[in-house]
Amino acid sequence: MDVLLGIGGSDDSVRALEWTLDRARAAGDDLTVAVVENPESERDVEDIVADVRERLNDAGVDAEIQRVSGNPGSALVELAESGEYDQLVLGGGEESPMGKIRLGNMSEFVLLNSHVTVTLVR
Amino acid sequence: MTPGPEFPDEPTGPFPTPPRTLADAEGREIRLRACDDELPEALVEMYVGFDSADRAQGVPPTGEGAIREWLHGLFSGDAHNVVAEHGERIVGHATLVPDSGGAHELAIFVTQEYQGAGIGTDLINVLLGHGAAEGVETVWLSVERWNHAAKHLYEKVGFDVTGSEAFEIEMTIRLH
How many CA atoms lie within 13 A of A41 on its CB side? Predict the structure, then answer.
């Protein structure tokens, strides 16, 4: 499958990256990683790109890394729909102190707008 | 994570403190008591039998092991808990869990056949009274956007809506 992974540097997006790499290795997926500018994340885009590159190397997976600017949700959906992607993968949300799952604005926008199948990684 | 919630400037209260014994709308005698230190076994039983349709944002988890692990986090450190008992049975539970910013997150669960009888309102009021007495200053919660009954209950108690992120609404209250 052609898989697009959208990540913004939060903990859940890093878990989504690890899950997607495992799957790509097992299934032979063609992977593109889109690093979004996430206003809710304290991490710099270049810092995230470097982290992604290192994890790709460690996993032995060859994938294209794209930087995505503008509104993260709409930019991801646009990218997913403009390419030949079968699946758009996102982090599954952060947990509150008492364990409630909280989804961000990017996830909501993608879930409600994407015509490409969406996977949230838990 | 997102920046912390914004809290009202003015405190709300006073709230009643536990223990309390009240009659619910069905005439059942319900006892509300604080239990911060010791996890009651009857609470594990309440969550093991909890209707999965009443779960919210992934809690309570399912399966006794996951439930015990989750409750362990709710009965440690600076967390505060109030349970509603009917006879030997625990039928409701409200909790204040500390976050990393000095505030507490609130959550409440009432077992299905005891819902709609006013126990939730009593539980929240007494939990806030207990929290205020224990020095809790600010409390926030998140509620699914479509859960109008819960949102109305929190507003009635004195919570303000302070944020609407994606699928859930954030509400806050100041106790001190």
Answer: 24
Question: Treating both helix axes as pointing N-terminal to C-terminal, what angle do A11-27 and A45-59 enclose, rounded to 10 degrees?
Answer: 30
Q: What is the DSSP letter of B5?
A: P
pTM of the model: 0.88
Across the interface, whether the CB atoms of B168 and A40 are under 8 A apart is answered: no
Q: Mind listing the domains of chain A with CATH numbers?
A: 2-121 (3.40.50.620)
As a whole number of angstroms, the distance between CA B57 and CA A50 comes to 33
How buried is residue A36: exposed, middle or buried, by Cβ count under 10 Å (0-12/13-18/19+)? buried
Record: contact A107-B165, CB cut-off 8 A: no
pLDDT digits (tens, 9 = 90+) for A22-69: 999 999 999 999 999 876 677 889 999 999 999 999 999 999 999 999
Question: To the nearest whole angstrom, how far is the Cα of B173 from the nearest Cα of chain A?
Answer: 17
ipTM > 0.90, yes or no = no
Write down all domains in chain B, each with its CATH number in brackets: 20-174 (3.40.630.30)
Which residue has tokens 């692990």? B69
Give the tens place of pLDDT for each residue, A99-111: 999 888 889 999 9
Q: Closest to A108 (Cβ–Cβ): which among B73, B107, B167?
A: B167
